[in-house]
C-alpha cells in the first residue's frame, strides 16, 4: 500500500501516513510557468494499492485538477488500484438541478474522477449520501459523527444537551449524532435561503430553553447559516450554542463572523487544511480525522469491514 498526496492538505496526508506507519510516496506536484500542473512520481508504484489524499477545497479547481493529474500519472505508472481519498468533496452542493438549465456538478466531478482512472473513492460526510450513487465504482462515505460525539461527551456530557440541525436538509445527520449522545433531544432551524451565500432564519422547531445546544452541519462556508442559527437559538433562551461542522470551508469573512457571533465554540475537522485565521481564532477548535481516515484506508487495503468502524 502507498499513500500519495497532492498539495491541498499535506499535514493531513502526513498524519494519515503516520497512523499507518508508512512514508508518503515520493512525488512532486508542481506548476509550469503558466500554472499548468505537472506530476512526477519518483518511486515505483507498479502493482501497488495507492491512496491519493486530496480534498478538493479552495482553490477547488486547482485542487481537483491536481487530483485528476495524480490519478492519471498513477494509472500510467501501472498502479494496481487507485483510491481517491477526498475527505472534502468539493462541488457536492450542486447535487441536483435546482432550476432549469443548471448543472449537476457533483455528478460531473464523479465522472471526471472515474474517467481519470480512480478505482475507488473515500470521502467524509458527503453533502448528500446519494452522491455515492453518482459513482459506478466503490465509494466509502465516512462519518465524522463518532469523533464529534466523543468530543461532545468529554466536554459537554454533563450538560442538558439539545442537538440542533441548522436546516431541514441536515435532520438525518443531526438525528444520527443525537442517537450517539444517549438519544439527546433534537431541534430544527427552519432556514430559508434567498440566494447562495445568504441565509435567513425563520423559526426554531423544538424547545431549546436552558439547553446546551449542539449545532451540527457538514459545511461551514460563509458562516451565515451557523451564525444566524446560533443567534436565533440564543434568542429562544438556549444556555449556550456550540457548533460541530465536518468541513471548515470558511470563505471570505467567515472566521471573523464566527468570532463575533453568539457561538460559544466552533469545532471543525481538518478534512480541509485550516487557514491561519482559523487556527488563530480562539473560538475555533480543530478535531483531527487522520486516525479515522487511516483506519478506513487500512481496512480497505486489508479488505476488511469499513462500516464496522461506525458500530
Ligand atoms: C447547506 O445545505 C450546507 O449543509 C451548509 O449549511 C451550507 O453550505 C453552509 O453555508 P454557509 O456557511 O455559507 O451558510
> What is bound: which ligands?
ribose-5-phosphate
Count of separate DSSP helical elements: 9
Strand order of the largest sheet: 10-9-8-11-12-13-14
- Helix and strand sequence: EHEEEHEHEEHEHEEEHEHEHEH
CATH structural class of the largest domain = Alpha Beta
Q: Please estimate the helix content.
A: 25-40%
CATH overall fold name of the largest domain? Rossmann fold
Task: Give keywords.
single chain; alpha/beta; Rossmann fold; seven-stranded mixed sheet; five-stranded parallel sheet; 9 helices; 31% helix; binds ribose-5-phosphate
What's a concise summary of this model?
By secondary structure, the protein is an alpha/beta fold.
Can you walk through the features of this model?
The protein has helices spanning 10-19, 60-76, 105-116, 145-156, 171-180, 224-235, 254-259, 276-280, 290-302, and strands spanning 2-5, 27-31, 37-41, 49-53, 81-86, 120-124, 139-142, 161-165, 186-192, 200-205, 212-220, 240-248, 265-269, 284-287. It is α/β, with parallel strands linked by helices and 311 residues long. α1 (10-19) packs across α9, α2 packs parallel to α3 (105-116) and α4 (145-156) packs across α5. Ribose-5-phosphate (R5P) is lined by residues 166-167, 169-170, 197, 199, 217-226.
